Amino acid sequence: DSQLEKTMDDVRHIVVMGRAARNNAAIKNRQPLARILVVAPVQLPQDYNDLVADELNVKRVEYLADNAALLDYKFKPQLKTLGKRLGKLVSHVGGVLAELPGQETMAHLKAKGHIVVNIDGQEIHLAEEDLLIETVQPEGLSTESDRDFTVALDTRLTPELIEEGFVRELISKIQTMRKDSGFEVSDRIVVHHSGNEALAGVFARNQAFIAEEVLADAIETGPAETAKSWDINGQKIGLAVSRTNR
């Protein structure tokens, strides 16, 4: 099935680029993210978008028509053209340019052929050749490009996403402790946690889900003799697991 093979190649390509974007942003794989933005020759069917989202641990896949929203710009004065023309005003122009919103300014420059800055009541018209334009990533995006594909992970974390990241890390550590303790896959356990009020709140709000994932009959607060200290995304907590008699 040549079409299926082509679609899966596109899936793999997006996933590989998405993982590179996550690595560049230094965000753990277990930390959920809101979305990945994709510019590609074709849009994948929804079932394959779900596969991409699952592989990259993002909530949704969004497609864009072009890269415009994935690029930002910084502007500096071009001294070759402005030095003689403006003299000492060049430094003031540089300060104003540094504060301009990149995408909006670039759009205006392309549409009008120039931008206008105001220095002490004097309007100064600047064409593209009067500017040094640097392409940068917008804040909150980690972008990767390859051939006609561009992907950008939205790296902004809401409180809900941060908590879900804590939940996934806690589950992972508890599963590691189950394995290290030699428990059978079907063994039921009791989880003890201590030493961190913030993570105690995470446990309380997500108790049913965590218990289901790790086969816990109970999740209890308080120290245990077998407790092990863990670092959960910068938060220290003591965890212990014990097998129940069920």
Description:
- This protein has 246 residues and is α+β, with helices and mostly antiparallel strands.
- The chain has helices at 2-24, 46-56, 79-86, 89-98, 102-112, 159-180, 197-205, 207-214; strands at residues 33-39, 58-63, 72-77, 114-119, 122-127, 131-136, 141-146, 149-154, 189-194, 216-221, 228-232, 235-243.
- It is elongated and about 85 Å long.
- The model has no long low-confidence stretch (mean pLDDT 93).
Give structural attributes.
246 residues; alpha+beta; 4-stranded mixed sheet
Secondary-structure map:
Elements: H1 2-24, E1 33-39, H2 46-56, E2 58-63, E3 72-77, H3 79-86, H4 89-98, H5 102-112, E4 114-119, E5 122-127, E6 131-136, E7 141-146, E8 149-154, H6 159-180, E9 189-194, H7 197-205, H8 207-214, E10 216-221, E11 228-232, E12 235-243
Parallel strand pairs: 1-2, 9-10
Antiparallel strand pairs: 1-8, 3-6, 4-5, 7-8, 9-12, 11-12
Helix pairs in contact: 1-2
Shape type: elongated
Query: From the structure provided, what is the oligomeric state, counting identical versus distinct chains?
Result: single chain
Low-confidence stretches: none
Structural class by SSE content: alpha+beta
Sum this structure up briefly.
Helix content is 41%, strand content 30%. With 246 residues, the chain is α+β, with helices and mostly antiparallel strands. The longest helix is centred in the N-terminal third of the chain and has 23 residues, at 2-24.
